Amino acid sequence: MPLISGRYSILSTACIHLLLLFCVAEYAESGMIVQTLPGFSGVLPFKLETGYVTVNESELFYLFFESQGKPKQDPLLVYLIGGPGCSALNGFFFQTGPLLLNTSDYSGGLPQLFYNEYTWTKTSSIIFLDGPVGTGYSYATSSQGYYTSDTESVAQTHVFLRKWLADHQEYVENQFFIASDSYSGIITPVLAQAIIDGNEAGLQPTINLQGIVSGSPHTNYSLEANSRIPLAYSLALIPRNLYESAKNSCNENYLVVDSSNAECLEDLEEIDECIDPVNDENILDPKCAELFPKPADDEQQVRRSLIAHSRNLRFPFFKTQDYWCRNFEYKLIDIWANDKSVQDALHVRRGTIKQWYRCNNSIPDNTYTYNIGSAADYYKNLTNYGTQVLIYSADHDLVVPYISSLEWIDSLNLNVDYAWRPWFVHGQVAGYTLRNEYHGFRLTFATLKGAGHSPTQYKPVECYNMFERWIHYYPL
């Protein structure tokens, strides 16, 4: 895979493409208000708007939730889901949105919904975006339009945001943040730099970008893959003698191994036997179905390990108190989002998609090019702009190990604002945090104790408290 490095090699291309897209694309259609949803009793207790924004040959679908607090003062977020190819509804139902699926007593039919008291929309307005094209309800008007890449995703999202704000002028002055999860972590700082460059170039409307909030963020393929074994050791998944042997025989490089290094290969095989039965997303959860391909040396496979697959599961519907698997919840969202009454309520254009997927596997497999190898350098660039950044990580996640995030954060050579310490929710340790700064740039890092990938799905109470404090400039 080509690895593009350096700020201008990507952004010059992205900015040129952005200008071309503005020349050929029409302004966004106004969204439509949704007052009721199948499965929810009564009128929705929040403002929900859905719609499409045209970006060249793409029609990007979004759900917009206005803040239930003070919408004129509260920040505006765009929420980018992982994958690539995981839908906006994945973030809406399982991470930060105002509704939850009732998974406790499902017995068939259309799943029921109830209000999420820990939704981030209590204190911010959020745009959940189906991107890149081919994700969720987004679609292309030509077959060629489905071919995209990391940098193309940045350009598409950049155009989407300026066109959406042009059509929603009442939010132009609100503080704006990019929020992301998992794979979209590699898109986030590149998009932030593109927005800054676009503002400086005079693109309108100006986006009042203040910062980034990113959970379990994919940032560097090699760093994350190489951190799995040290984290597995620290979590007591492999014994000390095996870890020390592999550490020495592989010279602490577990990703690219010389085929002649028999000792290293034998150690890695034994380690794999220890780790393989464990759920990579959260080592505390049962591994009831394969959600990720088995890790491999091939970088393409490492990238695909960040893709949360939406399988056509064949198990019967069961009571969660008898057996439990997180994929059961994912099956429920498949049922709900593919229901025609749901799609009509969301104003999805009929005939534009054949099947809705929580995570569309065909995007990474067939039509997506991974061309940003590392996003760490972009964070280094952002230190010049006073950007506020929150990186939060699960401490039981082997997909994006938190120690890999700490490593690239250390590489930024920032000043220590406060050192590693616990942070609390309701008097209990929720995780550990540190904060670094550089001339107005401030990066807060936080772990979520006992959480998996993605943290908001596993620790909604703690994540809401963390977000509410940070977004309003309070220390954790």
From TrEMBL:
<comment type="similarity">
    <text>Belongs to the peptidase S10 family.</text>
</comment>
<feature type="signal peptide">
    <location>
        <begin position="1"/>
        <end position="30"/>
    </location>
</feature>
<protein>
    <recommendedName>
        <fullName>Serine carboxypeptidase-like 18</fullName>
    </recommendedName>
</protein>
<dbReference type="InterPro" id="IPR001563">
    <property type="entry name" value="Peptidase_S10"/>
</dbReference>
<keyword id="KW-0732">Signal</keyword>
<dbReference type="Pfam" id="PF00450">
    <property type="entry name" value="Peptidase_S10"/>
</dbReference>
<dbReference type="InterPro" id="IPR029058">
    <property type="entry name" value="AB_hydrolase_fold"/>
</dbReference>
